[in-house]
Amino acid sequence: GEWIAFLDSDDGWHPQKLQIQWEWICAHPQAVLVGGLTEEFFPKENAMKILSPSLQDATKVTFIEMLISCRFYTRTVMLQKNLPYRFADSRYTEDYLLWLEIILAGLEAYVLPQVLAFSFRPEFSGGSYSAELWKHEKRELHAWNYLYRKQKIHLVVLAVAISWSYLKYLRRAMKRALT
């Protein structure tokens, strides 16, 4: 097909995820990346309620929003297959870097206001790549440096991104230490 969706073994999809996204995509052909909301563990009853997302409901994701926090959970994403961007090697936070490259290229990315997927384990839980907080942080920093080296972001943006990334890392580490 023309679009790709991702599903890891520790994630699940809303029973109508693909249908919901495909109907929205057909009505909004300018979009090249479409995600949705996600919940940890099994979806709550109201998460299974079918919505009819519209352009007014969908949120167009900006670079500034992505700088603050990744707005896409890979398990919710549908992505145009013919884009010239691919997942980078394992030195980077591959999915985050891919979404950033797409948005920095001026392509349109949206998040639908619908729970489209869920995870069988909490984010940053033991046994997953994201559980290795420092490794995850180093990969995110590599991604920002990559964007700078490829002249996709300015040095000032790099400095802000790195500083913010360290703050997010400290928050995650403190949160983990307190649980």
Order of helices and strands: EEHEEHEHEHH
The helix content is: 25-40%
**Backbone structural class:** alpha+beta
Stretches with pLDDT under 50, minimum 5 residues: none
Rg result: 16 Å
How would you describe this protein?
This protein is α+β, with helices and mostly antiparallel strands and 179 residues long. 39% of the residues lie in helices and 18% in strands. Helix 3 (94-104) packs parallel to helix 4. The longest helix is centred in the last third of the chain and has 24 residues, at 155-178. The chain is globular.
Concise summary:
This protein has 179 residues and is an alpha+beta fold. Helices cover 39% and strands 18% of the residues. The protein contains five helices and six strands.
Topology:
Elements: E1 3-5, E2 11-13, H1 17-27, E3 31-40, E4 59-60, H2 63-68, E5 78-80, H3 94-104, E6 108-119, H4 133-149, H5 155-178
Parallel strand pairs: 3-6
Antiparallel strand pairs: 1-5, 2-6, 3-5, 4-6
Helix pairs in contact: 3-4, 4-5
Highlighted features:
alpha+beta, 179 residues, single chain, 5 helices
